């Protein structure tokens, strides 16, 4: 199965679903426009269709803005003048920008689709007897919905801070005030805890669906970001059935042919299919949402080039660099590295190799079917290193770091070689520097760097200068100052249309500085 919801149209309102349950083959469409829950959840296909709709809005998010926002505001990217990237790269965005409203709406549409499943648990339980689905099927459906709702809210709280909590299917269409960020995180944790109990393990469910391991990994990540280190360690200890791919297979983490491999924890699925031209560019979740523009944006058009800063962070002998970034004509690409960069139609380097079509094809297009990897096991291993460091277990922290180094075939931390390269690991502070370095190179271009810098309180230091060729110029007058203000830009503005429409939110509820 390439993806779960190949033909889903989406969740439009509380009981207004346009549903197709898609697996390996086409199945009939339930296209009711005003679906009544009192006559739904009567068959396994209907349960699966409702769950599938909860995945659909992530396709909308990652068609573009889901990767644009966190990457453009990081120090991994230097944006072109494209209006989808430039305002965020320069920290010149405001509450009226359409993309901010799109992001907000897609997340809350996703929450609504999850609520439709969660809020109808009793109906599913009642209908299970004598039907073709079981209590285990219901548990798994609920577990997926709880995970996805938590993930939508994680995206919201990271980008906006406190947002309305809409978790009751009966009141979800009513206006709600902003909850605090702490309240949102508490709900995320509660949902993920339920998901760990209800979902099936990897291998016991279709590829592309939420698994128990993915739920534990996300729960551990949230605990880490909340500085709940013992809880994070316990959650990560439950992440099994995954492994780091050997360096020979490393590109499978970013290519279309390598999707759903043993390192991938959770992916957003695309298949490259296009409906009408309007549907391709709509980013609304209505119509075809089977393509992501990341390959064209990052590799073909170079709307978001990898920064000089991230390129220089790689050690000279690190094989991960040429698998992540294409710099010049010395790079080859494609199956068997049979093509010489730059690719036909590409603007030239440096550009991102990660998540492009160039691992499998000679050129890129707007119709990319490369899945978005929301989390890889490498991220989990690096988070485990960080947890152990914060628990003052320094030797285990270094061991986790060296799992990543061993996979890359790089010198291990704690050796004379790494000491000479400026990365000794004799103290907690030195181990932290190694973690910062290793996450920067291993996870570059994967939408984690900005949030890492914020939780480490390194954002002001690292984001106040453009990460271009002059980011480390010894002459400070040649460094280009960026408009970053940590008291403002750690979050984005609440969309103006939400303030205008929501009777429980007014201008005084806007994030400071906007």
TrEMBL record:
Residues of the SusD-like N-terminal domain: 41-224
CDD domains: SusD
Gene3D superfamilies: 1.25.40.390
GO CC terms: cell outer membrane
Location (main, coarse): membrane
Cell compartments where the protein resides: Cell outer membrane
Pfam families in the cross-refs: SusD-like_3, SusD_RagB
Lineage: superkingdom: Bacteria
Annotated TM spans: none
Signal peptide: 1-21
Keywords, in A-Z order: Cell outer membrane, Membrane, Signal
Residue ranges of domain RagB/SusD in the record: 263-514
Family under the similarity heading: Belongs to the SusD family.
Record protein name field: RagB/SusD family nutrient uptake outer membrane protein
Native species: Hyunsoonleella flava
């Amino acid at each position: 199965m390439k993806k779960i919801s190949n033909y889903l149209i989406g969740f439009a309102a509380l009981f207004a679903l346009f549903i197709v349950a898609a697996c390996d083959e086409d199945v009939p469409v339930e296209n009711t426009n005003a679906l009544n829950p009192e006559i739904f959840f009567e068959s396994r296909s209907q349960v699966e269709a409702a769950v599938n709709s909860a995945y659909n809005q992530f396709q909308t998010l990652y068609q573009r803005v889901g990767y644009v926002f966190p990457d453009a505001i990081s120090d991994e990217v230097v944006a072109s003048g494209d209006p989808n990237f430039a305002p965020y790269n320069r920290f010149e965005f405001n509450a009226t920008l359409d993309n901010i409203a799109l992001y907000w709406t897609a997340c809350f549409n996703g929450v609504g689709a999850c609520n439709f499943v969660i809020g109808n648990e009793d109906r599913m339980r009642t209908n299970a007897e004598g039907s073709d689905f079981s209590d285990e099927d219901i548990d798994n459906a609920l577990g997926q919905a709880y995970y996805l709702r938590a993930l939508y809210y994680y995206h919201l709280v990271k980008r906006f801070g406190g947002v309305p909590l809409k978790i009751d299917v009966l009141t979800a269409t009513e206006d709600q005030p902003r909850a605090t960020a702490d309240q949102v995180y508490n709900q995320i944790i509660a949902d993920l805890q339920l998901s760990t109990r209800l979902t099936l393990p990897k291998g016991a469910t279709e590829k592309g669906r939420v698994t128990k391991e993915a739920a534990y990994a996300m729960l551990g990540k949230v605990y880490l970001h909340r500085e709940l280190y013992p809880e994070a360690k316990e959650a990560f200890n439950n992440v099994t059935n995954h492994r780091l791919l050997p360096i020979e297979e490393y590109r499978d983490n970013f290519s279309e042919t390598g999707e759903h491999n043993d390192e991938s924890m959770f992916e957003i699925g695309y298949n490259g299919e296009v409906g009408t031209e309007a549907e391709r560019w709509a980013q609304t979740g209505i119509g075809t949402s089977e393509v992501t523009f990341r390959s064209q944006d990052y590799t073909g058009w170079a709307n978001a080039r990898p920064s000089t800063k991230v390129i220089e962070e790689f050690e000279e002998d690190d094989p991960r660099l040429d698998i992540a970034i294409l710099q010049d004509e010395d790079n080859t690409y494609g199956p068997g590295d049979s093509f010489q960069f730059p690719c036909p139609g590409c603007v030239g380097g440096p550009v991102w190799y990660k998540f492009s079509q160039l691992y499998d094809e000679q050129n890129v297009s707007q119709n990319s079917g490369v899945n978005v990897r929301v989390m890889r096991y490498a991220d989990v291993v690096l988070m485990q290193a960080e947890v152990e460091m914060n628990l003052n277990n320094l030797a285990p922290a270094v061991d986790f770091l060296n799992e990543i180094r061993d996979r890359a075939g790089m010198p291990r931390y704690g050796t004379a070689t790494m000491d000479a390269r400026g990365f000794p690991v004799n103290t907690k502070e030195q181990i932290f520097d190694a973690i910062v370095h290793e996450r920067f190179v291993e996870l570059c271009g994967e939408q984690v760097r900005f949030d890492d810098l914020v939780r480490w309180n390194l954002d002001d230091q690292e984001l106040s200068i453009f990460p271009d060729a002059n980011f480390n110029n010894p002459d400070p007058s040649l460094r280009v100052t960026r408009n970053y203000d940590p008291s403002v830009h750690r979050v984005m503005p609440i969309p103006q249309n939400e303030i205008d429409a929501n009777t429980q939110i007014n201008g005084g509820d806007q994030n400071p500085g906007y």
